[in-house]
Amino acid sequence: MAIAKAERLMNLALCLLGTRRPLSKRELRDSIEAYVETFRSGNGGAGSDDSFNRMFERDKDDLRELGLVIETVESLDGEIGYLARRDSNRLPPITLDAEEAAALGLAAKVWQQARLAGAASGALQKLRAAGLPEDVDPYEAHGALEPRIPVHEAAFEPLMLACRDRRPVMFDYRKATAARPEPRHVEPWALECWRGHWYLAGFDRDRGAERVFRLSRITGRVRSRGASFTVPVPDVVTVRETVASWAGETADRSALIRLRTDAGYPLRAKATAVRELGDGWDELEIPYGHGLDAWLVEFGPDVVVLDPAELRADVVDRLRAVAKG
After folding, report:
1. CB crowding 98-123: b at 16 or more within 10 Å, else e
2. Which of 18, 26, 128, 149 has its CA 20 to 30 A from that of 209?
3. Does an H or E element contain 148, and which?
4. What Cα–Cα distance (Å) separates residue 236 from each residue in 65, 106, 191?
5. 85-97 pLDDT, tens per residue?
6. Among the listed residues 200, 289, 215, the one whose alpha carbon sits nearest the alpha carbon of residue 248
7. H or E element, residue 114
8. Whole-number Å distance between alpha carbons of 304 and 311
């Protein structure tokens, strides 16, 4: 459905940009294949005309929201026509210095392993065609760092599109403490990458509250729902704070754990104090926030929680649930 709409909008934009005179709704309806296929003559009568008018108005508004300048012109006989003049929709000359080009190249490299790699590469090619200096290579290495955002989860692309299009979704989700996945009905807000893992923040309709879902725990296919959102989408900063809190970024106290020597390097990087215990074990003091129990479970027998008692109990419960599953 999203691809069909994108193709219809593209054809409408090309038609409006390619005409030398204003085109009426009737002419556009007869010229664009998507309209012809959807509203064939004899299929719906007046109702079909009303449906076309509503679709055309939505398409026109979408194109204007994307930045296309569409003029409305009334002819001498009172007929309304539409066109998009090329001079009104031409981008100004693009001038990028070496540092700006390097920043674009860095952004493109970030998505090199993701589904957006093709789009990032295509964008740079368009910038090159629009005037990016030939002696500037956006992909040239400008340092020792090679940024990467790995995206291995099959759920990433459909969720990214659902966030963009504001479409509710359904998927099966397995919590760390559950043996089997459960269906979730979610209004997706945004995707965030934290500690090398992707998280979806959104409104869980079944629980009537915001929730954060780790993409690696989504099983099966992500299905789109036809309904609209029922709650407002919060500001992106709020979403990021929500992900950080659920993933364990926000910490208001400390926890004491035992960790095998030469293991758990991500935990060591977060530790505020480390003490060697001998016999292959170290003692670490680490920030304790929401989600720490789920993170510690991932290290299995290499971690033993010493304090606080509630964190130890949560980790033990999660390990028992995994063992039963």
Report:
1. eeebbebbbebbbbbebebeeebeee
2. 149
3. none
4. 20, 23, 10
5. 888 887 677 677 7
6. 289
7. none
8. 11
